[in-house]
Amino acid sequence: MIDTSLANMSGLLWAPKNPLKGIAKSANELATDLHELDILTREDLGNRINPKDIAALIGSLGLLGKVATGLAEAVQGNWQTTRPRGRAMDFGPGRHL
Q1: What angle, 0 to 180 degrees and rounded to 10, lies between the N-to-C axes of helices 19-35 and 51-81?
Q2: How far is CA 48 from each of CA 33, 42, 55, 56, 69, rounded to the nearest angstrom?
Q3: Residues 6+ apart with CB under 8 A from 34
Q4: What is the predicted pLDDT for the residue at 92?
Q5: The pTM is what?
Q6: Which whole-number Å values give the CA distances from 29 to 6, 18, 20, 21, 92, in the listed order?
Q7: Which letter, b or e, does each residue of 51-86 get, where b requires 16 or more Cβ atoms within 10 Å of its Cβ?
Q8: What stretch of H or E contains 20?
Q9: pLDDT for residue 83
Q10: Whole-angstrom Cα distance, residue 97 to residue 91?
């Protein structure tokens, strides 16, 4: 059995969730879903919302997905190697809040 406390301190097992990945995935999926609407649904939606606004939203979501993906990839190494900092590490031994 692996001593996870030692592994976590060395940064080997601890990898926090990168929220940029989720944002990129959601933005890309929504842009794709809006773009792939069937013609009747698109017309119904266009009767309630200006079609130019829908097209602008699709473009904005695509841009958000692209930028968030790039940022997520750029910081991925930092997310995987950064280790959690507990009070003992922040304040040193024998120090208290």
Answers
A1: 160
A2: 18, 10, 14, 15, 31
A3: 54, 57, 58, 61
A4: 55
A5: 0.60
A6: 39, 18, 14, 12, 46
A7: eeebeeebeebbebbeebbeebeeeeeebeeebeee
A8: helix 19-35
A9: 56
A10: 8
Which amino acid is it at 74?
A
Per-residue pLDDT tens digits for 45-83: 999 999 999 999 999 999 999 999 999 888 876 655 555
Tokens for 65, please give them.
Answer: 């997905």
Residue written as token pair 């995987």: 80
SS3 state of residue 67: helix
Q: What angle do CA 81, 82, 87 make, to 5 degrees?
A: 145
With H, G, I as helix, E, B as strand and everything else as coil, classify residue 85.
coil
pLDDT in tens, 17-31: 789 999 999 999 999
